[in-house]
Amino acid sequence: MNLLFRRQVVTPVTLGALLICSACTPPTPEPPAVVFTLEEATIADIAAVFDAGALTCQQLTQLYLNRIAAYDENGPRLNSIITVNPLALDTAQTLDEERASTGPRSELHCIPILLKDNIDTDDMPTSNGSVILKDALPPDDAYITQTLRDAGALILGKASMGEFAGGSYTSVDGQTVNPYNVLRSTGGSSSGSGASVGANFTVLAIGTDTSTSVRGPASFNGIVGLRPTTGLISRDGIAPKNLNFDTAGPMARTVTDMAMLLTVIAGPDPADADGLSLRVYDAHPDGSDGLDYTQFLERGSLQGARLGVARDYFGGDPEIDALAEAAIATMKELGAEIVDPVTFDGSFVDEVRRIADYRFKTDWELYLATFGPEVPKTVDEFLELYDTEVAASAFPAEESVIDLLRRGSVTSPDHPDYVNLIENVLPLNTQLKLELFETHGLDALVFPYNASFAAPINNPNFTADDPTHVPSRDIRSPSTLAGYSSVGFPGIVVPMGFGSQGLPMTISLMGRPYDEGKLIGYAYDYEQATMMRQSSPLVPPLPGETIEY
Questions:
Q1: Which residues are catalytic?
Q2: Is 537 among the domain residues?
Q3: Is residue 171 part of a domain?
Q4: In a domain, 20, yes or no
Q5: What is the pLDDT along the chain (549 residues), one digit of tens a residue?
Q6: Parent domain of 360
Q7: Which of 205, 263, 256, 206 is nearest to 235 (CA)?
Q8: What would the DSSP string read from start to end of 170-190?
Q9: Cα–chain center distance at 473
Q10: For residue 156, is it within any domain?
Q11: What torsion do the CA atoms of 360, 366, 368, 373 make, to the nearest 10 degrees?
């Protein structure tokens, strides 16, 4: 028989066996569940769980409110939030309805954010950290507040801050403490912004930085913070400290989320003080309004970048130096060209602040004039209240606040020293820093942002005795290097690890004016290669914070 043409005869028994075999074929396995975890959740994580219909804006908001109640108001009582938005859940419901009917407004739709309490919100007080202003309701939103609302961001409340943008203590409700060790400082003055992001009470926060007040708290709380070129973000509706140097700055747990926030809040604003915003955007190399900073989030960004190691800022704490050396070695492995050392005399920025404060009274009283009659209108009125009512209260002001007001009451921008500062000193500072970049052909300076880990809290009203603290050698601080110029230089900090005491620290990159994009790319490349950010064990997840979908 020709086997090529032989037919197979299927008997009833054979057919039944085939049918049975077919019925027993295992079903296609279900895809594994996706797990959403609130702790360390990013904007992308939240967008995905929203899109899957597994979580609503109201539910997300309630989860963050639960954490605030458990850990900020109770438990370790971090004291990082001065006002919780009483309409947060109502706003969340509105955002849910809008998402269902017309879709999200932007990538920040229902992303919780806290604003430092010197940023105006027309529905919540803006205290500037002062009990005198604890009920002061601004007439309208700050420019950045309005841009965030327009983008659909959920303003969860106002973050605590150092009084008059100094330190981490306020006469409203006292001291903010570090989520990694409640006896340690958070850095200032955006203390609440840094601690609340570090403790996972919010996804995003905005701080303000006159000399160090975004990057310092970001460093002590193990998060990402950016001080942009002064004027890149409008200061309209932000209580002034020193408008020569003041800027808002985005804070987040990841470089990506920080870049997404910067994209929303950066932009030219005619109402910005001194017309600076419009001048900055006129001078911006790409001339663009509405630049998308997420375009710089690329692996390989460090390839070929020339980074100068600012050795003047090493030598404080050996553990911090070791973390910084490891961070720089990683950047070199990622393709950066390391120029080491780069040394310079940074003393040209040391005495700038006190003279620059000569304009404080003028700017402060102009800001006070925007409030209603219930708010004092002069520096002298504030001094009187501090010397009487506040001095006898539960949280008397720190002496630095009184000193600022006293100096402000007797100085003005007409003083010859101030005129010389504006016309000569600050332009020279700018020139010297630009020459440093040119001489070494640098794209950025790199250095550990702080010489020491967060120190025990020590002020007249809150002193922490922490025998585990190991003091660091006192060295020159890089904090004022970026800001104290006629044009503020941008600087970014990104987590580089932890010391033996369990406290985080950051590596800092500082660039030329308008080089935010470069810095974001470098920071992102380093972050993705190392992933040094870690949450604090003192504020662990609560029930209900993990969702499978």
A1: 116, 189, 213
A2: yes
A3: yes
A4: no
A5: 333 333 333 344 443 444 445 455 677 777 789 999 999 999 999 999 999 999 999 999 999 999 999 999 999 999 999 999 999 999 999 999 999 999 999 999 999 999 999 999 999 999 999 999 999 999 999 999 999 999 999 999 999 999 999 999 999 999 999 999 999 999 999 999 999 999 999 999 999 999 999 999 999 999 999 999 999 999 999 999 999 999 999 999 999 999 999 999 999 999 999 999 999 999 886 766 789 999 999 999 999 999 999 999 999 999 999 999 999 999 999 999 999 999 988 887 777 988 999 999 999 999 999 999 999 999 999 999 999 999 999 999 999 999 999 999 999 999 999 999 999 999 999 999 999 999 999 999 999 999 999 999 998 777 888 988 988 999 989 989 999 999 999 999 999 999 999 999 999 999 999 999 999 999 999 999 999 999 999 999 999 999 999
A6: 46-466+497-548
A7: 206
A8: ETTTEE--BTTBTTB---SSS
A9: 27
A10: yes
A11: 150
Alpha helices in 33-141 (DSSP H): 43-51, 57-67, 88-102
Report the C-alpha gap between 114 and 509 in whole angstroms: 25
CATH at residue 279: 3.90.1300.10
- Total structural domains within the chain: 1
Closest C-alpha to 415, from 339, 377, 478, 359: 359
Global confidence as pTM: 0.94
